[in-house]
Specification:
4 helices; OB fold (Dihydrolipoamide Acetyltransferase, E2P); 166 residues; 6-stranded mixed sheet
């Protein structure tokens, strides 16, 4: 099942894998598909879940957990990037949380250290950001003030692991 994004729909999505938590801006997402038939490829790298037909195109499906070097994720939604960012790949995550447009998402290219507080910062905020992180996003919703690394799908699609296979 495909859920195309309407203009002004959600602000974005949050995908988690192990200690990693990423915010993906809705403008970078072409569509979100339910996990469906993914054909495994023999001798493929462990992070390549296989190939699938999504939105009428054949794409390589990246297992987000294995790509980040954490445990294999339970099959979940598949994010197809906005066609303007590049084609040929999709990102399978264990779960995808919708962040509504009214949450006041603020993107910080170089946010610096996490704000001081009584509680220690979560594990995802203490580790170095991967190279395809474009900064951090923060927003306020029913759960309070929240943060996540900002995933730049264009940078991810240009990652050497992907370009070497293309």
């Amino acid at each position: 099942m495909t859920r195309p994004l309407a203009a002004g729909a959600p602000a974005g999505y949050v995908a988690e894998a192990g200690a990693y938590r990423f915010f993906i801006a809705a403008t970078q997402v072409g569509a979100v598909h339910e996990a469906g038939a993914i054909s495994a490829l023999p001798h493929a790298p462990p992070w390549l879940a296989g190939m699938a037909v999504l939105g009428g195109q054949l794409v390589g499906v990246i297992d987000w957990g294995r790509f980040l070097g954490v445990a294999r994720l339970a099959p979940g939604p598949v994010v197809l990037p906005n066609p303007g960012l590049g084609q040929g790949w999709a990102l399978q995550v264990a779960a995808l949380e919708v962040i509504e447009a009214g949450c006041g998402v603020v993107v910080e290219a170089d946010p610096g250290p996490e704000p001081a507080g009584d509680a220690a910062p979560p594990e995802w905020a203490r580790r170095p950001r991967p190279p395809f992180s474009a900064g951090r996003a923060r927003w306020t919703d029913a759960q309070g003030m929240r943060h996540a690394d900002l995933l730049d799908l264009a940078v991810l699609l240009a990652h050497p692991r992907l370009t070497e296979l293309a």
